[in-house]
Write a structure and sequence with these properties.
With 747 residues, this protein is mainly beta. The protein contains eleven helices and 37 strands. Helices cover 11% and strands 43% of the residues. The N terminus is likely disordered.
């Protein structure tokens, strides 16, 4: 094809952008410090000119400013391209190609036998036509067709056909359309294409657990968030709460930072000043989230955020509900899974503080201006500087977290099993802080005709080490003077400091705490061993009516030991006696539930409902013992209670003991997948209240309208649009946990 015929085709294809040739259009612009791409876009927005260029030839860092009124195109381009290596060619009155050849700014044809620049789009223009359909053969209108690496694009017509002039016979076209997977096609000389786009897999029919029921995502009427487990799996975390961070709108997660600590999870803000913790439901077992739940065992997480979605849990749902479903075995031969993660943890930034030299100069100036004599220790360091301590480096280290998982799963058409073991360890960035957790999970399920039963069992132990004393290391380290050593022989003469820990004295006055001394003198070791599980049996009377019995238990054994060694870590500390203190706590949580589920469709009508009864028993017993006067031999200290020679103390009791039972119900009605109604109610009775105050009523109602199913709704780029509203009442019985369980007294 000759150059003349190519130019003719391009000129013909641009007639849709301009109907009148030869008539110059004036341009008005007022732009400051913008990229060239924005200048071209602003000109195009005035409705006449169109620019074609390769993205990689535009200078990204160079900004231009222009202010013109009723100027010609040549005048505008002459000004914005003046300090660049770019030029332009006018293929018609309104189609301009930006080139890398600074000398090009004309509309004349190129002389024969002259090689065009590689970036001159006009010289290589190749017309490509085609038709775009879906898997059913239906034409798709409005599909974006773009040449990869350029701004050259068009859209398909009502019959699915398209025409685009590309810069190379080997160019790549990108086809994009809402609701369909993006597709890339390399031409390889082809000029006529038949493109079939594949619809994206919709998750609107995904089954969502909403408490005692599952519904399709498209039928939700309450505010329910679903966690993308692929995104959650990218995070190495010690708790389930950490994996939620940034994944669900309306859910705020704040991590205290110390290894193994429970994050603070708030769903749509704070519901109570005494407690903002949501209720956790793990495989149907109501429990409090804790560090022993292995995030790698989790298959799905749903978050009930508003009163309508949470009302089925009544008095315990005021702060929202997080429903966790763990992994199950699948039909097939045994499958082994192994995963290992190792990561480093570092503080991104430290306080910018003075070294010893800067500190001494500043202190000397301060005392000189005040006409006060320097402290002896400061004066000695000015005369002979021997100490230069970076207290932040002394307490901060490179931490790490390790996560290892091993599992086996399988099953048949009638049963399935999953067994998984894990080991997690986190060494914190602060010295003296670490956490580790081994765990084991066993999930099984069996089906026999209309009868099915199964269990979910988890055994776990978490172990933590951390300093006592209640010291904020991130505050103390930058306030400690750099002319005090972490530890030294010169400090052993200080009363009650036989180890020679450095801290403020009369010679170098400061009230900052030596955190390294804290980590060595006051050590806390804690373990939390838990068994959490439930067993269930289900019988289907018919395909649409079933009964389920669920019984669960959570038992934990908590142990905490604090050992206080000889020494102090702060100026003018009162030297405490050496001591050991132990706390042993047993926690039990029992659950029993009976539910009846109904799920049936009648033509365009669909009804699902659940009614049930739930009973919970919660109890905590504890025992404490402490003794002073620990015995030491040489560098060793005996930390058992029986070897202590000083005063002993004991304590114990039952600080939590309550029962609750509730009657629950919910009905979901759907007409033609278009109109949705949900009615929910629960009645709870709690033993922590007096007889006339024990009963609480928690009703809710929600409605939805899938407007996208209406005949009058015809918006091509919206696949599903639903309007919903809800109202409900909830309780926050967890607020009573901080008060304990006491006998009531009428007043």
């Amino acid at each position: 094809m000759t150059k003349l015929s190519i130019l003719f085709i391009i000129a013909f294809s641009t007639q849709s952008f301009a109907r009148t040739y030869g008539q110059e259009k004036n341009i008005s612009l007022r732009l400051e410090n913008v990229q060239l791409k924005k200048v071209f876009k602003a000109i195009e927005n005035q409705g006449y000119f169109r620019f074609v260029y390769k993205d990689d030839i535009l200078p990204r860092e160079q900004l231009v400013s222009i202010s013109v009124k009723d100027a010609s195109l040549d005048e505008v381009l002459g000004r914005v391209l003046a300090n660049t290596s770019l030029g332009y060619r006018r293929l018609s009155d309104n189609l301009i190609v930006i080139t890398k050849d600074r000398g090009q700014h004309h509309t004349e044809a190129r002389p024969q036998n002259t090689a065009p620049p590689a970036d001159d789009l006009s010289a290589y223009a190749t017309p490509v036509t085609g038709k775009i359909t879906n898997a059913k053969g239906e034409s798709l209108a409005g599909v974006t067709v773009q040449e990869q690496g350029t701004n050259n694009a068009t859209t398909s017509r009502d019959d699915g056909t398209f025409t685009i002039n590309v810069t190379s016979a080997d160019a790549t076209l990108v086809f994009s359309y809402v609701g369909y997977q993006q597709q890339q096609v390399q031409l390889k000389g082809e000029t006529n294409l038949n493109i079939t786009l594949t619809a994206e897999t919709s998750n609107l029919n995904e089954a969502i657990v909403i408490g005692y029921q599952t519904v399709r995502r498209k039928d939700l009427t309450g505010a329910t968030g679903v966690v993308n487990m692929t995104d959650a799996g990218r995070i190495t975390a010690s708790t389930v709460g950490e994996t939620l961070q940034g994944l669900v709108p309306g859910v705020t997660v704040r991590n205290p930072g110390n290894p193994g600590a429970n994050p603070i999870v708030e769903i749509r803000g704070v519901g109570s000043f005494s407690s903002s913790d949501p209720l956790y439901v793990v495989d149907g077992m109501l429990t409090n989230e804790n560090p022993v739940i292995n995030p790698d065992d989790v298959a799905s997480i749903q978050i009930l955020k508003d009163a309508s979605a949470s009302a089925i849990y009544g008095s315990r749902a005021g702060n929202g509900v997080i429903i966790i479903t763990t992994k199950r075995g699948k039909n097939g031969p045994a499958k082994f899974s192994v995963s290992a993660k190792y990561g480093s943890q570092m503080l991104p930034k430290k306080w910018n503080v003075m070294d010893a030299s800067g500190y001494l100069k500043t202190t000397q100036t301060e005392y000189s201006n005040s006409q006060v004599a320097l402290p002896a220790g400061v004066a000695a360091q000015i005369a002979n500087p021997t100490i230069n301590t970076d207290w932040q480096d002394a307490i901060i280290r490179t931490g790490n977290d390790q996560d290892y998982n091993l599992g086996i799963s399988g099953g048949s058409t009638t049963s399935s099993y999953l067994i998984s073991g894990s080991y997690y360890r986190n060494q914190g960035v602060l010295i003296g802080n670490d956490f580790q957790r081994p765990s084991l999970r066993i999930n099984t399920e069996t089906h026999r005709g209309r009868f099915s039963f199964g269990e979910n069992l988890m055994l776990s132990t978490s172990m933590s080490n951390y300093p006592g004393g209640g010291i904020n290391a991130f505050y103390e380290a930058p306030t400690m003077p750099p002319i005090i050593a972490v530890k030294g022989q010169q400090y052993t003469t200080i009363p009650s400091d036989p180890a020679g820990w450095g801290f403020g004295t009369n010679d170098v006055p400061t009230f900052a705490n030596n955190y390294v001394a804290v980590a060595n003198l006051d050590k806390i070791y804690a373990t939390d061993s838990r068994i959490v599980g439930n067993a269930y049996a289900e019988f289907k009377f018919t395909d649409w009516l079933s009964y389920r019995f669920n019984a669960g238990a959570e038992v934990s054994f908590y142990y905490n030991r604090e050992v206080r060694d000889t020494g102090i870590w702060r100026y003018e500390n009162q030297p405490p006696a050496t001591s050991v203190a132990e706390t042993r706590q047993t926690y039990t949580n029992f659950l029993m539930e009976h539910t009846l589920n109904f799920n049936r469709s009648f033509g365009l009508h669909s009804i699902s409902a659940v009614v049930g009864f739930s009973r919970t028993i919660d109890k905590t017993d504890f025992t404490t013992a402490a003794a002073t006067g620990l015995v030491s031999t040489g560098n060793s200290i005996y930390t058992t209670l029986t070897t202590a020679q000083g005063a002993a103390s004991v304590g114990g009791g039952t600080n939590v003991d309550w029962r609750q039972h509730g009657y629950l119900g919910r009905i979901n009605y759907t007409y033609n997948d278009k109109y949705l109604l949900t009615l929910t109610g629960r009645i709870d009775e709690d033993s922590r209240f007096g007889p006339d105050k024990r009963t609480g009523y928690f009703p809710s109602a929600a409605a939805g309208w899938r407007i996208s199913k209406e005949q009058f709704f015809n918006v091509a780029w919206i696949d599903d649009l639903k309007i919903r509203g809800s109202y409900g009442q909830l309780g926050i019985s967890s607020a009573l946990d901080n008060l304990g369980s006491f006998p009531y007294l009428a007043v």
